Hints:
By secondary structure, this protein is α/β, with parallel strands linked by helices. It has one domain (8-349): Aldolase class I (TIM Barrel, Alpha-Beta Barrel), CATH 3.20.20.70. The chain is 30% helix and 15% strand. It has 11 helices and 14 strands. The protein has helices at residues 42-50, 80-95, 155-171, 186-191, 206-209, 211-224, 249-261, 286-293, 305-313, 324-328, 332-338; strands spanning 13-15, 18-20, 24-26, 56-63, 100-105, 123-124, 134-135, 141-142, 148-149, 176-180, 229-233, 267-271, 297-300, 319-322. α8 (286-293) links the parallel β12 (267-271) and β13. α1 (42-50) runs parallel beside α2, α3 (155-171) packs parallel to α6 (211-224) and α7 (249-261) packs parallel to α8. The structure holds flavin mononucleotide. Flavin mononucleotide binds at residues 27-30, 60-61, 103, 180, 182-183, 232, 271, 275-276, 300-303, 322-325, 350.
Amino acid sequence: MSTPSQAQLFANASIGAIDVANRVAMAPLTRSRADMDGVHSELAVEYYRQRASAGLIISEATNISREGRGYAFTPGIYTAEQVAAWRRVTDAVHAAGGKIVCQLWHVGRMSHVSLQANGVAPVAPSAIQANEQVFLESEGFDRPSMPRALETAEIGRLIADYRHAAECAKDAGFDGVEVHAANCYLLEQFIRDSTNQRSDEYGGPVQNRSRFPIEVITAVAEVWGAERVGVRLSPITRAVGDTPLDSDPEGTYFYLAEQLGKLGLAYLHCVEGQTRGDNGAGDFDFKKLHAAFGGKYIANNSYDRQMAIDAVDNGHADMVAFGRPFISNPDLVERLRRSAPLAEADRNTFYGGGAGGYIDYPALG
Ligand SMILES: Cc1cc2nc3c(=O)[nH]c(=O)nc-3n(C[C@H](O)[C@H](O)[C@H](O)COP(=O)(O)O)c2cc1C
């Protein structure tokens, strides 16, 4: 067991072209405190500034388009107002010595007609309704609406939306982007055979189901350079409801990781197990996934201090991302370094509301 001063968790590193001060990443955390135009307020500037001692902040999931939105009060990265608001966030993080990438999000079928322009159906690889919950502007949680299957000819438009969002993230001063291909949203709906029943070149065998995510990531890498693009995957996550897994998670995700490895990306970021559940790494060989990818690897899901120290020291991960602990411990890195107690996050203020439970968790005295 290493002492904190020896632990590689607290040493600097290069993740692609991004130099990080330590190996503790802040996991992406939706907090639903933007306005209904997807524009952040000054609260978000303070929230991210307080957490800038993370080696790398991965922003909350950020909508690439109006169509990509599935939850009320989530931020976007496709209009000038959204970019200007994010610019204040990235400036504050950089002034505090931190690094921040933007998580690019399209929810696919996890949306609701009330969140779509003109009340149209959300889009998905196939017209299969999710048995999940999305958060609406006025009626609280509801089941996502029945989606419509994307036409093959629309795929190019979707890729253009990702490209536009990637350009906006550059204008907003981020250090890079993370393509959200996890947690049963659009890209993962294409990857899994349970949610993709297409008969065109984007459905069927794993080579076809991986095609759209790879095309999106390639387009985003053209904007940023691959060494500033990461990808998040969650091979055995079921979202919060009963979203089915792929019929062959290891076969599917090992293939995908190998293809992603050829792109020279900054990192692969994995939710190991059921999100927020046990770290279920026993059910899926994440070491093999890392090996198939061959590049830098960020591990996440229910890590504690010792697990994180061990994961970096034994080469399982290059960084470890913490989610819930960062909500209630803005100075998480310092607390881990000192082995200080961690404050518990209040679930009632995870989503929505104002400053309470957002920017009022104190740092150590
Ligand atoms: C309030 C909350 C919001 C989250 N929002 C996102 C998100 O926007 N994007 C994402 O990929 N994962 C999201 N997650 C999942 C976390 O990034 C992370 O995978 C999960 O919390 C497990 O890590 P932890 O045990 O360190 O909290 C969210 C989790 C929580 C608790």
